[in-house]
Amino acid sequence: MAVMGVFGLCGLICAVWSASLPSINARLHLGEGRIGLVLLITALGSMACMPVAGRLADAWSSRAVVRVIAPVAALTLLGPALAPNFPVLLAAAFVLGGALGSLDVAMNGHAVEVETRYGRSIMSTFHGVWSLGGVAGGLTITVGLHLDTGGTALMAGAGVVAAVLFFLPGKHLLTGETRHEVAGDAVVPSGGLPTSTIVLLGVVALAGFVSEGAGYSWASLHAQGMLGADPATASFAYTAFAAALTVSRLTADRLRSKVNPASWMRYAGSVAVLGYALVLVAPLLPGGRLAFGLVGWVVVAAGLATVVPAIFSAVGAGGANVGRALSWVTTMAYAGQLGGPAVIGPLADATSLGTAMVVPGLLAAVIAVAGPIVVRRATAKHLTTAGLD
After folding, report:
1. Which of 151, 16, 137 is nearest to 82 (CA)?
2. Is residue 44 within 8 Å of 93, Cβ to Cβ?
3. Which of 172, 199, 231 is the last residue of a domain?
């Protein structure tokens, strides 16, 4: 429960930041170009600090890093909330991104430890709770603004409250983290994953984040531009995608526990491919194409929901230096999240949004084909280390 609390509060912080951008934009008169630069700087801050957080987690323990960085990450919301001008906002966004990226690595590393001790797959549930925290954060800002509470006060207040709340689960995180694997009746130390395996896991995570990001960023625009939906109806495509992703993450772990990790990755990727096939075919239908397209996005979400959590679980199977390995995989995944829209947008301009959707569909196929091979290689590592190969 303590780790779920950390994930939920982290999701809340991320949502408060995202939902507050319109208020910051209006207060500082930024415009779309400058907002885009702010988001880029935030992502760069995350990517710069993730490897450092991984090394610290391996040196001190993920628990120690979470307990320190979680309240700090919450308080970094005060920087953008109080920024008086654009240069200060950029600096604050970099610090915020660095803190959130560090927390992301540390809490996922701790979740790996909890999952190992728990004895079955629970990583997807943690990520589902993160999504629920995101809903709570978004609603907090939306309701607050409708009640005429200032955006600065809302953002700063949420940061302070979250920082205080982080101390509650922080006291109950696991202690005495060690990396061992069980071989028959003997407990043996685990070695770390080879660099090549870490890179390949990162590539699959990157493919997962690009494919998932395509749904978050483009589902509504696809419904409007390719399926003829009005703006209000088109926005439901995003809602359906996000809801399906959250529900799938909260319910998938029991099924994951009954299937070996490699097979699960194949099933997840294949379901996502099917979903993108429905999305691509929907504009060609003479009738009912909007409903068909919405179903496609729901299927995409159901397939992709557990890809990144399953990759993180596979990293944990490697044994030693989990924090460092997880930091590199997470950094590559964030690169996909950052670069995905940048690829799809220009391609859509040059061809059509329907054609551009082929890219995440192909990446889902990469997950279905290459994912099982990479995950099998990672999860078999502890057997090799124990001399059981």
Report:
1. 151
2. no
3. 172
